[in-house]
Amino acid sequence: MEVRQGCRERLGRKAAVGSQPQPGLMWEPVGTEACAAALGGALFLLLFALGVRQLLKQRRPTGFPPGPPGLPFIGNIYSLAASAELPHVYMRKQSKVYGEIFSLDLGGISTVVLNGYDVVKECLVHQSEIFADRPCLPLFMKMTKMGGLLNSRYGRGWVDHRRLAVNSFRYFGYGQKSFESKILEETNFFIDAIETYKGRPFDFKQLITNAVSNITNLIIFGQRFTYEDTDFQHMIELFSENVELAASASVFLYNAFPWIGILPFGKHQQLFKNAAVVYDFLSRLIEKASVNRKPQLPQHFVDAYLDEMDQGKNDPSSTFSKENLIFSVGELIIAGTETTTNVLRWAILFMALYPNIQGQVQKEIDLIISPSGKPSWDDKCKMPYTEAVLHEVLRFCTIVPLGIFHATSEDVVVRGYSIPKGTTVITNLYSVHFDEKYWKDPEVFYPERFLDSSGYFAKKEALVPFSLGRRHCLGEQLARMEMFLFFTALLQRFHWHFPHELVPNLKPRLGMTLQPQPYLICAERR
């Protein structure tokens, strides 16, 4: 009896000892595994819920335009990225299958693509207010917080900023007769820089970028920057790089899945880094430009903007702010530089590619301006062939092929399709300029299409390089003046040809704008 009791006591003590928590014993990891399993289950449910939500976002709304099938989660982003064709060409081909108005799924972002002149005009002109908004894409939110000018939402802020910009371009720019002489003065700086190459091959991208940007700089800052100003050149290079990066698949994925912004790599991160450097530099330029400012006596856009800020200090609804000033200045510089620069780069490339066309332009220049005369904006109406060549470059090259994305400000029906409020809308301007209904043999570079039977310049309705509607380019008048004066000055002074008759790659570089591949050119003094 005592023996049994002693055994029970010893067993009880062992059980008691075994029941106490002991560090390092096997039961503790079991608790950790249970916790990990619970977290894993919760994470799985979260991912599952997000996946279901994403798939539901990818469902086409009732009555939405048809479109090509996409992959789960990323939709048609892969098709765009994997296509051997540039996005605007891919979209035009899809319109042959699904119609002039079709849809794409950009990773859960329902998007409508407009192709051909008729439907683009129907939306941007006949229903201009509904299609005047901008989509709240994560990229725009990150870059400009939907403020500034180009990417701002349709409303009072956009109206106020556009009014100020239009008035500034007119008052400090092309509205002044003296401004034409400033453009011609810049062409002289540009031509002098070209002369230093003495007919040797060179890439004139940097020079033409400097020259064109200086015209916009005169309006914005009231000053030009020398071609040796490396800081300003670096800023323009970052701007240009961002124009290319903005069209990358990485950025489309960021718009669809903004949480990937936490990753320290990707083209979207490079874009954000570039923007931070540019905004810092612009802030310093703005501060420098406003040093001698006299309130209500503006000398340039920055002065005029600061006057608006002063007047709106007591208005809580005013959108004029230092931050929006920086965004607006940056957008005006890049919009005024990137497009005109690339039009002129393409124009010179095509003059070297087609010497007979170059010769006809030079013949007209010699006849109207004379070999040593000064080009004038008034000469334009007397030079139909030169005008025709520039317009054919604008058509054939379509510098901004997809425009800037629009959005619907309310539910709308277009050709029987229901498009909900907030839908992203892409206007394929390339498809407009290659619309067989309006252009015979659109794949052929043929300036004579802009001449009538008497040899006079004939304007074409379906040429819309500056877009249409309320959001059309506000700098169109200035851009046309720059293109004509720079182009005539360059062809008056030089004969252009490729070194050793080596024709460069004519396929454009992918970006928000279509720019030529880098090429070398020779400028022989005439």
UniProtKB/TrEMBL annotation:
Cofactor(s) this protein cannot do without: heme
Lineage of origin: Eukaryota, Metazoa, Chordata, Craniata, Vertebrata
InterPro entries attached to this UniProt entry: Cyt_P450 (IPR001128), Cyt_P450_CS (IPR017972), Cyt_P450_E_grp-I (IPR002401), Cyt_P450_sf (IPR036396), Cytochrome_P450_fam2 (IPR050182)
CDD domains documented for this protein: CYP2R1
Catalytic activity of the protein: 1alpha-hydroxyvitamin D2 + reduced [NADPH--hemoprotein reductase] + O2 = 1alpha,25-dihydroxyvitamin D2 + oxidized [NADPH--hemoprotein reductase] + H2O + H(+); vitamin D2 + reduced [NADPH--hemoprotein reductase] + O2 = 25-hydroxyvitamin D2 + oxidized [NADPH--hemoprotein reductase] + H2O + H(+); alfacalcidol + reduced [NADPH--hemoprotein reductase] + O2 = calcitriol + oxidized [NADPH--hemoprotein reductase] + H2O + H(+); calciol + reduced [NADPH--hemoprotein reductase] + O2 = calcidiol + oxidized [NADPH--hemoprotein reductase] + H2O + H(+)
UniProt GO BP: organic acid metabolic process; xenobiotic metabolic process
Localization per record: Endoplasmic reticulum membrane; Microsome membrane
Name by which UniProt lists this protein: Vitamin D 25-hydroxylase
